[in-house]
């Protein structure tokens, strides 16, 4: 029994190796205000590595690791060096807007339609909202069930110009900018194409919405 205890003392504890991988990952992730849970994968209990006489070193196996998984190389750089590859899973949680009740297609979202809950970021492939002000008044493109995360791709682009609104038409070319009065002929959101009437020439032109007051057209 004594011989077995002495032999065990000669091997580096696997828990130390997993801890080194976890601590490395915790310093590398960018949480963006999220709460994160980091877990190192299990190592084969039959693994026997010479006890390292100095602190373990760690570095990523690849610089292309994503935010939810990475492989960490844990190294002993002593007289008898060794390297172990430890898979690490990273789960980050952030508070996002979810549907408090079923949301109907085409009906603008109100504050009463929303609640805010923590969800795991890697599952939010369609994006998410952390504040309600960016989605209030926008209408779902499809019905959303209660409890679903509200993502940008679920909503229509917010209309910043309404049909009949007086706007400024800006034409730019070679550093020259000409501004003229116009009228929107349809609803449109920022960055969308819109038909507008040039009130000076009475011509209908197509431009791009810059903001609630301005549409840019090609000169």
TrEMBL record:
Q: Answer whether the UniProt record assigns the keyword Signal to this protein.
A: yes
Asked whether the keyword Transcription regulation is assigned, the reply is no
- Residue intervals of the SAF domain: 94-156
What subcellular compartments does it reside in?
Periplasm
Task: Give the UniProt keywords, A-Z.
Answer: Bacterial flagellum biogenesis, Periplasm, Signal
The protein's matches in InterPro entries, at most eight in alphabetical order, are given as: Flagellar_FlgA (IPR039246), FlgA_N (IPR041231), SAF (IPR013974), SAF_FlgA (IPR017585)
The record's section on Gene3D superfamilies has:
2.30.30.760, Antifreeze-like/N-acetylneuraminic acid synthase C-terminal domain (3.90.1210.10)
Which GO cellular component terms are attached? periplasmic space
Chief localization = periplasm
The GO biological-process annotations, alphabetized, read as: bacterial-type flagellum assembly
Which family, according to the similarity comment? Belongs to the FlgA family.
Q: Which PANTHER family does the UniProt entry name for this protein?
A: FLAGELLA BASAL BODY P-RING FORMATION PROTEIN FLGA
Q: What does this protein do?
A: Involved in the assembly process of the P-ring formation. It may associate with FlgF on the rod constituting a structure essential for the P-ring assembly or may act as a modulator protein for the P-ring assembly.
Q: What is this protein called?
A: Flagella basal body P-ring formation protein FlgA
Biological source species:
Candidatus Tenderia electrophaga
The lineage is: Bacteria, Pseudomonadati, Pseudomonadota, Gammaproteobacteria, Candidatus Tenderiales
